[in-house]
């Protein structure tokens, strides 16, 4: 009996639907969902079991689907792409914002009422719970579906997702704000219902997380492999990226793909890359030695005792990283530099070929501007190493990828 816990985070919730897509593909059945804020809203669609609808909503989401206002102006504000003539409009919007007590999120309420099927959600035997905070009573509120009055599900979901910049939500005369002020990742709600196997999706949202006893729980924690953007960054390119990231990050976790940024299903053996590193040109190694301030070492000792450890440091790899993992991190570095799309399943060989086929391989700025007169002792300094990072990594990568 697997349960899913979804962290709040506004537009970062687009990551959740990517995770859901992967879980469906992996055949993992979800018997209960707990969430906060956007995690609660996404949870409702999961309980409703309407993946296509949820995907379509997120894929086509615009700022005006969430709050009232000038669509073009809101887009410019989110992108910080403002012109002089926009500031009068912003001033007027701020006056309205203050006088009305926050952003009007009537469009979001309408979206929920139009697309959520409360009868279907109530007709399931799955567990659904979420968190909000009562300002009137000065206390948090754990809400399970069975405790919500008929026809009021959308209102309670809005209460869970009521950020401080939004107009306050009222239910039966009481004021509510976002549940993230108490518990943005409410694992407790499913644990209390007897769930032992839990998948926690953490989306880098701002909020408090209550501690919980992990004893007896089989926890799977899913984290985004990249930045999900800002809480209110309702931009198509951001949402689409997050949806893909959630999907591929989840597949990577369960299928054991390699890579930090990319999704590599086949990585050649350690011995292959030891041989490739060993074939580096002695003259190139001598230049690298001068670059990092090492003298009087044989090329092979220099490579394995100095150059490769420096690669691990610059690529932020653990000391225990294998040579295959170091090589893959280098290839990923090159792939990111030349702008190769990371959202697909690939192999180390395929990715290396794509990097190699780029022309020129990688442009490294200021390759010739590293001062040669620096004393060797300064060349071990972290600031200096950061300065030569691209030059060092590209030089080794070019050697590694030689035919």
UniProtKB/TrEMBL annotation:
The biological process GO terms on file are: lipid catabolic process
Q: Give the active-site positions.
A: 37 (nucleophile), 178 (proton acceptor)
- Keyword Transcription assigned: no
Q: Where is this motif: DGA/G?
A: 178-180
Signal sequence coordinates: none
Instruction: Name the Pfam families for this protein.
Output: Patatin (PF01734)
**Residue ranges of the PNPLA domain?**
4-191
Q: In its keyword annotation, does this UniProt entry include Thylakoid?
A: no
Q: Per UniProt, what is one GO molecular function of this protein?
A: hydrolase activity
Q: Where is this motif: GXGXXG?
A: 8-13
**What UniProt keywords apply to this chain's record, in alphabetical order?**
Hydrolase, Lipid degradation, Lipid metabolism
Per the annotation, the residue ranges of the short sequence motif GXSXG are 35-39
UniProt cross-references to CDD domains, sorted A to Z: Pat_hypo_Ecoli_Z1214_like
Protein name from the UniProt record: NTE family protein
Q: Which organism is it from?
A: Acidaminobacter hydrogenoformans DSM 2784
